Amino acid sequence: MPAMPLDGVRVLDFTWVVAGPVATRILADHGAEVVKVERKEPPQLGNRKLGLQCDLNRGKLSVALNMQHPRGVELARRLAAKSDVVIDNFSARVMRSWGMDYESLAAVKPDIICISMSGLGHTGPRSSYVSYGPTLQALTGFTMLMAEPDGTPAGYGYSYADTCGGYTGALAALIAIWNRRRTGRGQFVDLSQFEAVASVIGPALLDISVNGRTQSAPGYNSQEGPAAPHGIYKCRPLDGDDDRWVAIAVRTGPEWRRFVTAIGSPSWASDPKFRTLYLRMRNSAELDANVSRWTAQHSAEDAMAILQRAGIAAGVVENGIDLCARDPQLKERGFWPAVSTARGVTTNVTGIPFKLSGGSGKVRSIAPEVGENFDYVLGELLGLGRAERDELVAAGAVWP
Amino acid sequence: MTGPAALAGLRVLDLTGHRAQLCARLLADMGADVIKVEPPAGDDARRIGPFLDDLPHLDRSLFFWFYNLNKRSLTLDLNHSRGADILLQLARSADVVIESYAPGTLDRLGLGWDTLHRENPALVLCSIAPFGQTGPYRDFIADDTVLTALGGMLYINGFPNHAPVRPLGLQAYHSSAYYGAIAVMLALLARDTTSEGQWIDLSMQEATAAAVEHVAGAFFERNEAEPRRGTLHWSRFFRVGKCRDGYIMHCTLGDWTSLIEWVKSDGKAADLDSPDYQQVMYRYLMAEHLFDVLDDWVKDYPRDELLERAQLLRQPYATVRPPEALFDDDQLAERGYFVEVEHPELGRKFRYPGAPYLFNGTPWRVSRRPPLIGEHTGEILRDELSIAPQALAALFAEGVI
Predict the structure, then answer these.
(1) How far is CA B209 from CA A130, B146, B178, in A?
(2) Which domains does chain A have, with CATH numbers?
């Protein structure tokens, strides 16, 4: 088996909810040994053996330490001293209260890398505020600018602040590890998920600071230069499902001419009011109504195929079943790998969106039960004998 | 500035068009020397607005500015054999090449993986394509909207029984760029032990699907297509509510007792003071009804008054703010989030969004403003490849650079 990029890297993982687990999952998929430190009864966020919670925690180990107990904290500190990276998503005071802030850990292990993925950062007047991905998204403008045409906020069903925070956390860990291999030095990374997600609406923020322009919800207007037609168009129902749409994006003159030919050169398309990109944008309501009349006669799949054959950007607005069970591209590329559960049944999880020619990342196992790796973590990593382990359990410092 | 940057000594050639430019920027911000290789007519991102003072020009695109801070610019015609040859020479001493051409294009230019790997076995090539380098959709084309459609992100946004609503902020591109930078770092770390570079095949469709993985979770756990839920988050603990003068984000994961005491004191608790709601799982099950009651409670409150009191009770409520508010945000100001970047040729300074993370040893930094078109062509070719002045002039006259 080819070596994994993070073979030999141990990550002590205090994170929970979504952003932190996304970051450490990426590290686990590429060879890092990720040890989750958890409470015995964490708030129930769903079934660990299937679905999202399995996805987020797959390939990791779990130990249940009682961080209210001084000896539980002591065990965590000893684990940190044997780790390369310690990741949390608490506000500043939590790790400090356990003596596990960067300064304290660096005193024991000078080249430790500590990454704290808090909501608003470790400094500043609101560093102690409680936040979650959806609330951070609301604060940055993401929520307000994804609105129905009348301005009513209309999403999100998910939290880009969490996923984006997760990617940023994983990237920070990799950069810090790369630097440590060259300098021998560890460091502390103070990651504010608020700032991480604000960073990705950069062009809009520059439009505010440079041009002083107030931003409004872009709706289906292209966010990457003018385009028309550009948006989603309703298609013929599929097996009685009326919620079928195709996304279409037409930019250049040649693309427009190919588009018109592909949809059978209807007479409306030669109307001078659609002659140039500017005119198509100005008359987009009428244009969209005409395009919708064409898409209504086709299934979303057929509309995509016809347009892609003509070299036009078009795609089915895929629902969960399209995505996970029908999409031939994702199937062909093996994007939903199967993993075995404890009872020998297999389930599928979200794959890794990139392949490496020298050996891709792997989904090694489903998520562990809380405390599942008690023997390995206490026995092998910390070298505690059976009697010592039993005594710690009896003292309430750790749950078996 | 304290000492060398985290990625000091790394050389990256950035051949990407506007869909993947964030990837190399993430590396440039941490100190990699990133050379943006543009066609002589300019990168396509330079034609995308908004523009400085709304005057379109290749050097005035704010879209280009944001994604190309900290990079140098080299113009080079890769369709010209001499241009491709120069790129190959640069690749010999580079650590990473990042590209987002249609699959097969690099091969056609004589710059495919086999060639690059032969010329420089330690080189990492990161190919970012809408659907990756293989499969039946390999040659399909897509913009961010089409990618959010085929990645399962678009369908879930908006209200049930309304049309799906388009997510803000090029999330398909950004997710791909983050995964690209992660993949590049992984390949570089692997190189530490193998001394070999690798070819990264990144699919933007997959990166988009990975950003909404609860959709796959719902399918593989319950065989369900995740529905559109309006502003109700999939966890069912968050929903947007409307105050007298604006929107707020409700959250039912804070201390329930103190929240409900407050709602009760306003006479608006309805059945929410039932002990059942003390349990998180009951709040999960009753989310729609619960938020309807809370909406009725907040509707006459001025937004800021509600938020102030919520925060005193440590309730994780938030204001639904416009992005303009970030520029007046005391938390961001205290942390120095926005950074001034000087554009000396314009005699002006502009505030850019800053670091997504603060490294205490090797800080995120602005080392140079985004490059003017071809600004560093001459110096790179002279210093890196020792091309003589006459030869440079000839390349320029021929339109290669």
Answers:
(1) 28, 12, 14
(2) 10-200+336-399 (3.40.50.10540), 230-326 (3.30.1540.10)
